[in-house]
Amino acid sequence: YLDVATLTDFRVELNGSQWGFIPIFLPEFGPKAAAAVGPTRKLMSILMLHDVIVWPKWANTEEVYRGLAMLRGFGITSAEFVPYYAEEPLAVTGAANLHVSGYRNATRSLLIVANLGREPVRDSLCLVDSQAARFESWPERQLEPSEGACMMVEVEAGSYAMYVATP
């Protein structure tokens, strides 16, 4: 999808906050691509960065449901979505192809770190409004090594990773 549309295109076309509708994306993968995990995982990376749900037709449904289960497990229905392009995002990285959106509730944040590039990326992920934080992989809930409000992340090309950060 990023070969024919930019992230700005996704933001403009799928952001329903101005109009009030719920943005739903209908994939158009052919049968071979829909059966594969990779194309759907990259699509989920893009859509989760923009808080857009997907109609799982013509995509790998197991991969769609895996991503949605991770979001539901955090409890996104009672959390505020903060996109990567917000004036004050939840977290930032120094890599051009790593984008971070997420959901924030009263005590913690779910960070969605998406690598939209064609190469794996290893870079520092830092919370914006905190001096120190505890990071856990999501949904595994394994404590991640960190220094202050930063940790190192590795994300495969066309994929995403999720972390829960507690300031």
Entry keywords:
167 residues, alpha+beta, six-stranded antiparallel β-sheet
Explain what this protein looks like in three dimensions.
This protein is α+β, with helices and mostly antiparallel strands. 24% of the residues lie in helices and 32% in strands. The chain is built from four helices and twelve strands, in the order αβααβαββββββββββ. It has helices spanning 7-14, 31-35, 37-49, 61-74, and strands at 24-25, 53-54, 80-82, 91-93, 98-104, 109-115, 121-127, 134-138, 143-144, 146-147, 150-155, 159-166. The strands form three sheets. Strands 3-5-6-12-8-9 form a six-stranded antiparallel β-sheet. The protein has a four-stranded antiparallel β-sheet with strand order 4-7-11-10, with no helix packed on it. A hairpin with a 4-residue loop joins β5 (98-104) and β6. α3 (37-49) packs parallel to α4. The radius of gyration is 15 Å and the shape is globular. The N and C termini lie far apart (35 Å). The mean pLDDT is 91.
